[in-house]
Write a structure and sequence with these properties.
about 120 residues, mainly beta, OB fold (Dihydrolipoamide Acetyltransferase, E2P), five-stranded mixed beta barrel, four-stranded antiparallel β-sheet, disordered N terminus
Length: about 120
């Protein structure tokens, strides 16, 4: 069971549930099924109330890339991937432990934590 209070107030993009599994906190609309990793008060599709939930830890890579351009606070190369979380939304995450290799589209990854900069991290399953 996920502690909704902790997830709804935690500014980090992921947290650990009661079983010790990393999950991404979010909201789900019981009326239309809309899912979001953002803490919204109402559903943007149907304006219905949203329920707190958590997504993951598994997901499928939708797209990935190796970033080789330096930006402040980041040392290239690093790997980013858009991940469709199982029964959840698509999220952007850093790929941990991948070196400079982007995971193939369609491969399975799992949420592994939050990096030093507070970014969601996934690693190949």
């Amino acid at each position: 069971m996920v502690d909704d209070e902790r997830f709804s107030t935690d500014p980090r993009p992921a947290g650990v549930d009661d079983e010790g599994t990393w999950r991404v906190p979010g909201r789900r609309c019981p009326a239309c099924g809309y899912r979001s990793a953002h803490q919204r008060p109402r559903c943007p599709r149907c304006a219905g109330p949203l329920e707190a939930t958590a997504f993951g830890p598994a997901g499928t890579v939708w797209s990935s890339t190796v970033v080789r351009v330096p930006v402040p606070g980041r040392t290239p190369p690093y790997v980013l991937a858009y991940v469709d979380l199982d029964e959840g939304p698509r999220v952007l995450a850093h790929v941990a432990g991948a070196g400079a290799t982007a995971p193939p589209i369609g491969s399975t990854v799992h949420v592994s934590g939050v990096g030093a900069h507070g970014d969601l991290e996934v690693e190949p399953a």
